[in-house]
Amino acid sequence: MPKSEPKSDPGRFAYGGLERVIHERARLSILASVAAHDGGLLFTELKGLCKLTDGNLSRQLTTLAEAGLVETWKGTRNGRPQTLVKLTAAGRKRFADYIAELEAVVTDARRSAAGATAGRAATA
């Protein structure tokens, strides 16, 4: 009798920890940038790091703030308005959890690719 493959758990590849609010490219780049700078980043620095326009960055920050991931402070320096962006404590945890889930996706993808490569080599 042929050996059957083990059944996968239902939802094994659902990746429920990939939050839509984080997964969008611009928001992901904003969060990664801010996470790498404990003291936060100024709006202009963030705009350059993420290659976003003023309007797009502003809209994405609003979305992230509404989700409780970032907070902003507005002030002035040398008579010029400035906005500082930082992760909230909850945002830092959610982003770390998101990255852990993304690492699971990468691990699964690598295993699948390695299995496919081994299977092709065995039949060649």
Structure description:
The chain has 124 residues and is of the alpha+beta class. The protein has one domain (20-123): Orthogonal Bundle (Arc Repressor Mutant, subunit A), CATH 1.10.10. The protein is 57% helix and 15% strand. It has helices at 20-23, 25-35, 43-50, 54-66, 89-123; strands at 41-42, 70-77, 80-87. A 3-stranded antiparallel beta sheet has the order 1-3-2. Strand 2 (70-77) and strand 3 (80-87) form a beta hairpin. The longest helix is centred in the C-terminal third of the chain and has 35 residues, at 89-123. The mean pLDDT is 89.
Number of domains: 1
- How much helix, percentage-wise, in residues? 55-70%
Based on CA atoms alone, the radius of gyration comes out at 20 Å
Overall average residue pLDDT = 89
Q: Characterize the largest beta sheet: strand count, sense, and whether it forms a barrel.
A: 3 strands, antiparallel
- Tell me which oligomeric state these chains represent: single chain
CATH class: Mainly Alpha
Q: How far apart lie the N and C ends?
A: 25 Å
Q: What is the architecture at the second tier of CATH?
A: Orthogonal Bundle
Outline, from the CA principal axes?
A: elongated
Which strand-content bin applies to the residues?
A: 5-15%
- Would you count the extended β strands for me? 3
Would you list the SSEs in sequence order as H and E?
HHEHHEEH
Strand arrangement in the largest pleated sheet: 1-3-2
Instruction: Tell me the structural class.
Output: alpha+beta
Task: Note poorly predicted spans.
Answer: none
Q: Can you say what the CATH homologous superfamily is? A: Winged helix-like DNA-binding domain superfamily/Winged helix DNA-binding domain
